[in-house]
Design goal:
Blueprint lengths: L10 E5 L4 H12 L3 E6 L2 H16 L10 E5 L5 H15 L4 E4 L14 H29 L2 E6 L12 H21 L4 E8 L5 H14 L3 H9 L10 H11 L11 E4 L5
Parallel strand pairs: 1-2, 1-4, 2-3, 4-5, 5-6, 6-7
Length: 269
């Protein structure tokens, strides 16, 4: 094993990879040597991110250490879109060894304000979207006798938060899916884990801040401080801190870690 690039030659897919936690995870996996496919809906952002990773870790022309970064559009709520994107990854990078389901949405509304469309969207992206992606990689992983599947859940999958019932419910379901698949796929050498960030410096956190400003008439500074108070360290989590845990779960020495929901939240419980 390459000690400096332990994931060399291992194709990885990260959904929702154009920004925030997803981009940080793609960067972490590339730094560990993986060939990374960045999937999402914003083609321009994905291509820019993949180009930066290629330049940073491969050099501008010829991939080194078997690495490569590619960008593909993919809507995880569409069976056809997922099937086409994953087939293209296999064609260009080889059989997928690592899947990180990061794509997610967090509609914010009270129970009486939330629409049925918002409720269904939260589950279709956060849970069923992950399920669709898992089904694409399991056959190849089972043939090889090993693989890594990681779901980016949330502390909202471990506890409740007011005003985001669809998000909380869907993330609880995602952790349930994680635990069920860990038992089902464990005999095939496939680990399945969830990483549960607390409030993190992302666009989703900005939306939460904006929602607090709107609903509770707080200033942006007061709203940010309110979110940070959830974290005993008094600050929001950084995306790279979440990514480092995902990277660790993909390493060979983490092969006995499965079925876990790991909070990355500075002590929030």
């Amino acid at each position: 094993m390459n000690q400096t690039r332990p994931l060399a030659g291992r194709p990885a897919i990260v959904t929702g990879a154009g920004r925030g936690i997803g981009l940080a995870i793609a960067t972490e996996l590339a730094s560990l040597g993986a060939s990374v496919a960045l999937l999402g809906r914003d083609e321009e952002k994905l291509r820019e991110a993949a180009a930066r990773l290629t330049d940073a870790f491969d050099g501008p022309h010829t991939p080194a250490h078997g690495q490569h970064a590619i960008a593909l559009t993919c809507d995880v709520t569409s069976d056809d879109s997922v099937a086409m994107a994953f087939a293209e990854v296999r064609r260009r990078l080889g059989d997928i060894a690592i899947l990180v389901n990061n794509a997610g949405v967090a509609p914010a509304a009270s129970i009486m304000e939330m629409t049925l469309e918002q409720w269904h969207q939260a589950f279709d992206v956060n849970v069923t979207g992950a399920w669709r992606c898992v089904r694409q990689v399991v056959p190849g992983m089972m043939t090889r006798g090993e693989g890594r599947i990681i779901h980016v859940a949330s502390t909202a999958g471990l506890k409740g938060y007011a005003g985001v019932s669809a998000y909380v419910s869907s993330k609880h379901a995602l952790i349930g899916l994680t635990r069920a698949l860990a038992l089902e796929l464990g005999p095939n050498g496939i680990t399945v884990n969830a990483v549960c960030p607390g409030y993190t410096e992302t666009d989703m956190a900005k939306e939460a801040i904006d929602n607090l400003v709107r609903v509770r008439s707080l200033s942006p500074e007061e709203a940010r401080a309110k979110l940070a108070r959830h974290n005993p360290s008094g600050r929001l989590v950084e995306p790279h801190e979440v990514a480092s845990v995902v990277g660790w779960l993909c390493l060979p020495e983490s092969g006995s870690i499965t079925g876990q929901a790991i909070a990355v939240a500075g002590g929030e419980i």
